[in-house]
Amino acid sequence: MDSVHEPSHPTLSELRAKAQPPEVRSRKNAEHWTAQLYLRHISIYFTMLLVRTRISANGVTGLMIFAGWCIAASLLIPGIWGALLAVFFSQVQMYIDCCDGEVARWRETSGAKGVFLDKVGHYTTEGLVAVALGIRAVGEWQNLSDDPAGTYRYLLAGTVLAGFVLLNKALNDMVHVSRAFNGLDKLADSKEATALTPGLVAKLKRAARFVPFHRIYHSVEMSLMAVIASVVTMIAMPLGGGPLFGERWLILIMAPLCLLSVIGHFMAIMASKRLS
Predict the structure, then answer these.
(1) CA 149, 135, 80: angle at the middle one, nearest 5?
(2) Shortest CA distance to 118 belongs to which of 63, 36, 183?
(3) What is the per-residue pLDDT across 168-202, written as a single tens digit (0 to 9) for each?
(4) Does pTM surpass 0.85?
(5) Which of 53, 150, 222, 244 has its CA 20 to 30 A from that of 59?
(6) What sign does the CA torsion over 196, 219, 212, 155 have?
(7) Does domain 12-270 have CATH number 1.20.120.1760?
(8) How distant is the alpha carbon of residue 216 from its chain centre?
(9) Domain residue spans in the chain?
(10) For the chain, how far is it from start to end, CA to CA, in angstroms?
């Protein structure tokens, strides 16, 4: 664990200057859109409370991990209320995810352990959320024995989706590991560093902006997709769509689309200068 300094009582402007410097607020890839849009504007107030306590930055990351696991657990609650609870915890997770780095920067306790714990949190959360979407599509466990051929495919799809989601995340970390093993500098978090060389892959990436399905495999987006699926089920059932209509189609569609995302991500890395 990182060392814990004595609690301090900074002013809001002092804390914001050190905990939210411009290089943090302007990061291209390290910041989720929710952080850039609104979470960073309000996270500083919770950070103000945290730095007055003895909780370490790694301890705050532990809270983030727990909130992430609560997203997956919430998806096991049937119906739209479970999905809405998952959305709530996804926001809590991202909110705390902003705060742990801010605490670390204020106390000057940033380190490899904090980065490692942050990776553990996001990898486990997004893998568990994908599996939970598959379990959610099964419905009652009795369905596995009543219709094993029909329902096991949803568990399989959720497991496959989890594997693709984790592989897609790992590709970014593989870039950093590969650069480190070859003595290259840390990859800058900028558009220039990830720019593609002109060609087919660059054209495909530009086209993907109009159908950005590759962006839905984060815990926030997957929980929002669960809400949409629940609404679809509520609309479809009176029309003869059957129970869990939306949840089942969601998992069956997301798994192959995630495979396309992984392939596209791999091609984009190879077509860029990230490994040179």
Answers:
(1) 125
(2) 63
(3) 999 999 999 999 999 888 887 767 777 777 777 77
(4) yes
(5) 222
(6) positive
(7) yes
(8) 9
(9) 12-270
(10) 34
